[in-house]
Design a protein that fits this description.
heterodimer, A: alpha/beta, 3 strands, disordered C terminus, B: 718 residues, alpha+beta
């Protein structure tokens, strides 16, 4: 739930839920100024529309989606949105940190 | 979402649009520059079709669609806007109107007769569409199908998918709903073939509210479920989102409509292609049916700069323009229930009465500060009154313009060539008066066209231009509004009217009458001099109804005529029915109110000895003694005054004891019991709580002049 340490130096990593309940808290992180270079959603357990919106808003500002968990990928696929380059498995993502 | 209310709005908007359409249709024949008018006609049809689509009013959409197609051809210059087409389109307008009125009456499915009535129109339109077949590939074959107002198969998209367009409202997420769940649920009913997530509403990072919903979805969906079932998926968010579901193989026009409806998402067209609902070719075809680019240069610039498809720009511009139009209109006017206005006027009336009471007490208390405040208060109340009454004022132009159609239709029926000229359409008068004057005017206009204006041959014989002229005019004149209906026809035949009146026993033969009085006879019940009865008028009903209606509005009607040159009917009506500026006069212990606008001046009493008239700067001024007229007890005081009244270019004096000054008069109607009382038009309540009667100036003036004449007649025994 609590946003975490950046994965690669300049990437923002989110752990836990990415839903309406923590959208307020996530916004300053994902949409920080200057825009973060990349997002790591490999440890996201759940994502809803509010989360997708934040992701799209971040991507619009040039932030790359590095990797995403299965939960995120499922929603992105459902909405026919582009998937991250490397569809990440939940556990190896952690290894990067 | 209250559908009933939305439907009401649809009906009233459609009525307005149909009115605009009619006006434009009637003007288009004469107009030098037809483009604007044709566009206006097209826009009206187009908007009605669009709104009807929202309510699933299939028959309205289907019929209007054909009309729109023809109008599209006219706009492209493929069809000339000839007289025959105008008549046909007027017929179509009436049919749409009938369909809409059906909806208003709660009949969502029109009756079989109504549908049948529309069929000949559709057939005629089809013939027109078929003629310049060059740019309409589809409708050439006159479709025999009676029920499905046919649009041939080539008009439909070649897809077996439903198209779902979902725009959740901003509060959906906060209400605990997630559109994702509905989309997941959709998968259980069928296949989501393709989908585009629309993020164009997503604001910049700074403005983004993470708990609001900004995303929309365009979904191509293959399923055997019916529309109801698909709709039910979204049941929980129905009220909170914009949802459009198009069945497989919908008309292109429907897709185009959808594209237009989605505000800033001008790229929707592309999305439809991307999510596989339409092919690019189909999209082009759908868009071609849409309006032409209103602003060609801008469109071209956009295409050049951003390399967007021109069709997309087209749809976007049309949408943009509509938004601009509608928002400009919204900011200009507010729709208010007429009852609320009446309520306001009533309250203002009470306020004035209460204010008068406060004034009276303040005057009695002799506290100068209090008097100062109350006088300021009265001034404000007066302004409130004026603006409240102003709210009820409407221009008579709309009523006048309705007669363009009447004149157009009736002159065709009669085989006469008659043109209607309108003047003074900006003249304002009370809404109730406008509503009630429309019927009497209709009688007068028809009567003038039927009996007044001669046939073309007769006109040629008399050396008049072949085209007859009918003129409606309105203007303000000393507290009344004057409406005239004037024709350049044969005029009234004084002798024939008199002969008929004698025959009917309305007047005695040999009785001397002025022209005005003779012409006035034709307003008597059962009076008609027309030799043949036409289906329009001549049955002797109508003109007496006209007079009765106008009298009920405290108005008068007069006729004047130049034989061979034409007839003019002059209607005078009070400006308002609710509150007036009055002038109070006292006789004995009674107080009377006179509408201030009708008072010319006040002078000290003088009279020619033994006569009921006085010398007003060299003019004879007949007068009435109010004390005598109403049998007010007591002897006349010494300093009597004459109030000089003016109505319809005639003057008369009114002898009163005292002049009491101006007073805001709230008109209260008299009870049924007093309806026969002459010379009184209503009552009002004074500040003291006493009742004062309001004098009916027109009848007083008439009586003064009449009694002058009668006296003269008595002195010369017949």
């Amino acid at each position: 739930m609590k946003p975490a340490v950046p994965t690669p130096p300049e990437a923002v990593r989110v752990e836990g839920e990415m839903t309406i309940f923590c959208a307020e808290a996530l916004k300053p992180l994902l949409l920080a100024d200057p825009a973060p270079a990349a997002l790591d959603l490999a440890a996201v357990t759940e994502i809803d529309t509010a989360g997708v919106q934040l992701l799209l808003a971040a991507q619009r500002r040039g932030t790359q989606l590095l990797q995403a968990s299965e939960a995120v990928c499922e929603v992105l696929a459902l909405l026919h949105l582009p998937l991250p380059p490397a569809v990440a498995a939940p556990s190896p993502a952690k290894a990067v940190s | 979402m209250n559908l009933d209310q939305a439907l009401q709005t649809f009906v009233s908007e459609s009525r307005e649009l149909l009115e605009d359409m009619e006006t434009a249709l009637l003007a288009v024949e004469q107009a030098a520059d037809k483009d604007d008018l044709v566009n206006a006609i097209f826009r009206a049809a187009h908007t009605i079709k669009g709104s009807a689509g929202l309510f699933d009013l299939g028959p309205v959409v289907a019929f209007t669609h054909v009309v729109e197609s023809v109008l599209d051809q006219v706009r492209d210059g493929a069809l000339p806007m000839a007289e025959g087409l105008v008549v046909l389109l007027l017929g179509c307008r009436d049919h749409i109107s009938a369909l809409v009125e059906g909806v208003a009456a709660g009949q969502l499915e029109p009756s079989a007769e109504l549908l049948a009535a529309g069929q000949p129109l559709v057939d005629q339109l089809r013939v027109l569409l078929a003629a310049p077949a060059a740019n309409t590939p589809a409708v050439a074959a006159p479709a025999p199908a009676a029920k499905t107002p046919a649009v041939a198969a080539a008009d439909r998209a070649d897809t077996d998918c439903w198209h779902i367009s979902l725009r959740p409202g901003p509060d959906v997420l906060r209400n605990g709903m997630d559109p994702l769940n509905f989309i997941r649920y959709l998968q259980t009913l069928g296949d989501i073939v393709s989908m585009v997530t629309v993020d164009s509403a997503l604001p910049d990072a700074a403005a983004l509210d993470p708990t609001a919903c900004y995303l929309g979805y365009e979904i191509a969906y293959r399923s055997s479920a019916d529309k109801q079932a698909i709709e039910n998926v979204f049941e929980f968010v129905r009220d909170d989102c914009e949802l459009h579901i198009l069945p497989p193989n919908s008309h292109f026009a429907d897709y185009a409509l959808l594209i237009e409806r989605q505000g800033e998402e001008a790229k929707l067209g592309e999305m439809l292609v991307r999510c596989g609902t339409l092919t690019q070719r189909e999209l082009d075809q759908a868009l071609r049916r849409q309006a032409a680019v209103p602003d060609q240069p801008l469109g071209q610039v956009l295409v050049a700069q951003q390399a967007v498809q021109p069709e997309v720009v087209e749809a976007a511009l049309v949408k943009q323009k509509q938004i601009k139009d509608s928002s400009a209109q919204e900011s200009r006017s507010v729709r208010v229930d007429a009852d609320k206005l009446d309520q306001l006027i009533n309250l203002v009336g009470e306020l004035i009465i209460a204010g008068a009471n406060v004034n009276l007490i303040a005057g009695r208390a002799q506290i100068s500060e209090l008097q100062e405040s109350t006088s300021k208060l009265s001034m404000l109340v007066e302004e409130v009154r004026d603006s409240a009454l102003q709210l009820r004022m409407v221009k008579i132009g709309a009523t006048f313009n309705r007669f363009q159609r009447v004149v157009h239709d009736v002159s065709r029926d009669l085989g006469k060539n008659i043109v209607l000229e309108i003047a003074g359409e900006d003249t304002e008068l009370d809404k109730t008066v406008v509503e009630k004057i429309s019927d009497p005017l209709m009688h007068l206009v028809r009567n003038a066209m039927d009996h007044g204006i001669e046939s073309a041959e007769q006109r040629a014989e008399r050396g008049k231009p072949a085209q007859g002229m009918l003129r409606l005019n309105a203007f303000h004149d000393s507290g009344s509004i004057v409406i005239t209906v004037q024709d350049d026809g044969g005029g009234l035949n004084r002798e024939r009217i008199l002969a008929k009146a004698v025959e009917r026993g309305l007047v005695e033969s040999g009785h001397h009458m002025s022209d005005g009085e003779v012409y006035g006879l034709i307003f008597e019940p059962g009076f008609s001099t027309a030799e043949k009865v036409t289906n329009l008028s001549g049955r002797g009903v109508g003109l007496d109804v006209v007079k009765r209606n106008i009298t009920a509005l405290r108005g008068t009607v007069e006729m004047s005529s130049d034989p061979g040159q034409g007839t003019t009917v002059t209607i005078r009506l009070p400006l308002t029915l609710a509150i007036i500026d009055g002038f109070l006069v006292g006789v004995g212990k009674s107080t009377f109110a006179i509408p201030l606008d009708m008072i010319e001046e006040c002078i000290a009493f003088s009279a020619e000895p033994g006569h009921d008239y006085t010398n007003l700067r060299g003019e004879v001024l007949p007068f009435i003694r109010l004390r005598q007229l109403f049998s007010v007890p007591g002897a006349p005081t010494r300093g009597e005054n004459i109030v000089v009244l003016k109505h319809a270019e005639q003057k008369a004096g009114l002898v009163v004891d005292t002049l009491l000054g101006e007073f805001q008069t709230v008109i209260k109607p008299l009870g049924q019991m007093f309806s026969q009382v002459k010379c009184i038009s209503g009552s009002t309540i004074l500040g003291s709580g006493e009742v004062a009667l309001i004098l009916d100036v027109p009848s007083l003036v008439r009586q003064a002049i009449h009694s002058g004449v009668a006296k003269k007649a008595e002195s010369v025994p017949a």
